[in-house]
Amino acid sequence: MYIILLGPPGVGKGTQAKLLAEKLQVAHLSTGEILRKAVDDKTPLGLKAKEIIESGSLVPDNIMIGLIREVLSEDKIINRGFILDGFPRTLQQAESLETLLNEFSIKDIQIINITADENELLKRLLNRGRKDDTEETVKHRLNVFKEMTFPVIQFYREKHKVLDVYGVGDIQEIHSGILKILGKND
Ligand code: AMP
């Protein structure tokens, strides 16, 4: 199974992606986690991305597309199936991903869009305590989402069926709701 998880920062994509990956036995591919690890390990990617991540802006498309191409090229990832969490975040990333999925002959992809209202997102992001979650960066990240990532959801609505899920409430109930719309038993 191949899943793209869309939604604003703070909506719980990471949490739901983890639960889903475990349940469906597929790989959880979080570009945010890959980047944070690269920063901690001080790899060339990490050194380039550090300040961008800390400011709440987006890492350039060419870097992100190269990174995803590399990750998907690992045979076992395609064989196992995956959940993409945090990618694509721009129209260019979405278009490149279409090409990549074609190259890998992946046709059947599920798109899940998790939603919540902005006050809830602000509250959650400020309580999360991650290094890149100061008030200033949180506001910037929400604006970057509206400007750069919201059009990605529209892009998918025109091409695919998008499964919308309301992301406020009990974590397990939201997880069950996602399984249900995917046609999977809880
Ligand atoms: P996340 O954990 O998904 O919120 O990602 C944390 C940060 O990593 C983001 O604020 C961006 O700076 C960077 N990042 C993660 N995924 C992407 C992406 N697909 N494109 C650009 N930047 C990204």
Write the layout of secondary structure elements.
Blueprint: E1 2-6, H1 13-24, E2 27-30, H2 31-40, H3 44-55, H4 61-72, H5 75-80, E3 82-85, H6 91-103, E4 109-115, H7 118-128, H8 135-159, E5 162-166, H9 171-181
Helix pairs in contact: 1-9, 2-3, 4-6, 7-8
Bound molecules: adenosine monophosphate.
Residues 9, 31-32, 35, 52-53, 56-59, 64, 86-87, 89, 93, 141 line the site of adenosine monophosphate.
What does this structure look like?
It is globular and about 40 Å long. The protein is α/β, with parallel strands linked by helices and 186 residues long. Strands 2-3-1-4-5 form a five-stranded parallel sheet, sandwiched between helices. Helix content is 60%, strand content 13%. It has nine helices and five strands; from the N terminus they run βαβααααβαβααβα. The longest helix has 25 residues, at 135-159. It starts with a strand and ends in a 5-residue tail after the last helix. Bound molecules: adenosine monophosphate. Adenosine monophosphate binds next to α2 and α3.
Spatial shape = globular
Radius of gyration: 16 Å
Structural class: alpha/beta
How are helices and strands ordered from N to C? EHEHHHHEHEHHEH
Short description:
The chain is α/β, with parallel strands linked by helices and 186 residues long. The protein contains nine helices and five strands, in the order βαβααααβαβααβα.
